[in-house]
Specification:
Layout lengths: L12 H14 L9 E4 L2 H12 L5 E6 L3 H9 L3 E6 L10 H6 L5 E6 L12 H13 L3 E5 L21 E6 H4 L8 E4 L2 H15 L4 H10 L5 H20 L12 E5 L6 H9 L6 E2 L9 E5 L4 H14 L1
Parallel strand pairs: 2-3, 2-4, 4-5, 5-6
Antiparallel strand pairs: 1-7, 6-7, 8-10, 9-10
């Protein structure tokens, strides 16, 4: 089909059209192909948005616990990060007053990630509405990382549904279609923002591999609901085991993780290093913010493997 040459920096036109249709159908969007840009994974989309739209000295609000790349991308660009810390006791819900207290003349963006990595939290609609209104009032960009939307086990609403012109939504085939090694994702925003981000992408990598774009485009026809069903079953089993172990956690609304702690505080960085000796990997909470007593358990292995891993964790604790 001739897909093996240099291509448009925004992505294949046919693919972007299909992505717009997919977003309108699944995310309550109102977009067209000019609102879509194909990226080599959602991570690069996050990097593009933060690096292009913000300047050194600007400030960004990150609600924690959070995937570390948001903070790392900002720091790399000379941008100050203001953290809004959430707690297990408050069901990982951010306090609106704390968000407001972070805003000053230098604040330019707030990052949202729901369903959340690492907690699995989905914001209640009313709280999400309040955050959107704050962003509109102070004319903040909203960078909404929605890569776990296919793994929502409670009511979830895309930021696209608000039709806010300063929103940037990232999505990834790594999660929705389990295509981690293909390194392909996409951004959705207004055309002016997409055009700005495209210039940096063209400078950095010319375009995303066309054969991989074509593969991802064909995968849009696949029914991936079973992926969500499988992960939900695994999470249910992990929840059962965590309760038996008397770990403290909030039942995740979605995503593919449990963010837990023991009743007696421990250094989970040391625990994670120890577990590697037994072939078990957990993510220490310190990577997601000031949460060294927590650790993230992933539901990305089959149930038999998860049970074996949790048995080793139980022994180590």
């Amino acid at each position: 089909k001739g897909f093996g040459k240099y291509g448009p920096a925004k992505g294949l036109p046919e693919f972007r059209t299909k992505l717009a249709e997919f977003a309108n159908k699944n995310f309550d969007g109102n977009v067209n192909s000019e609102n879509v840009m194909v990226t080599p994974g959602a991570r690069f989309g996050v990097f593009l948005a933060i690096t292009t739209l913000l300047n050194s000295g600007d400030e960004i609000i990150v609600i924690e616990p959070a995937w570390p790349a948001y903070r790392q991308c900002a720091i790399n660009a000379g941008i100050k990060v203001r953290s809004v810390k959430t707690t297990l006791e408050n069901k990982w819900e951010p306090n609106v007053d704390e968000i407001l207290s972070c805003i000053n003349n230098n604040t330019k963006m707030i990052v949202l990630n729901y369903p959340n990595n690492p907690t699995g939290k989905i914001l209640p609609r009313k709280l999400q509405d309040q955050i959107i209104e704050i962003a509109k009032k102070y004319e903040l960009y909203i960078l909404s990382d929605e890569i776990y939307s296919n793994y929502s086990n409670a009511e979830w609403n895309s930021i696209l549904s608000y039709d806010y012109e300063k929103s940037i939504v990232t999505q990834s085939f790594s999660k929705s279609h389990s295509m981690t090694g293909y390194r392909i994702g996409y951004l959705i925003s207004n055309q002016k923002i997409i055009d700005r981000l495209t210039k940096l992408q063209a400078l950095c990598l010319t375009n995303v591999s066309e054969p991989i774009q074509y593969t991802a485009m064909k995968s849009l026809d696949d029914n991936v609901k079973n992926n969500g069903k499988i992960v939900k079953e695994r999470l249910t089993k992990l929840e059962e085991i965590c309760k038996e172990m008397e770990l403290e956690f909030v039942k995740p609304d979605g995503s593919m993780y449990i963010f837990a702690r023991t009743k007696n505080s421990i250094n989970t960085s040391e625990l994670s290093e120890e577990l590697l000796n037994y072939g078990v990997a957990i993510a220490p909470g310190i990577g997601f913010g000031d949460y060294n007593e927590f650790f993230r358990i992933s539901a990305c292995s089959d149930i038999k493997t998860l049970i074996e891993g949790m048995d080793i964790l139980k022994t180590s604790l």
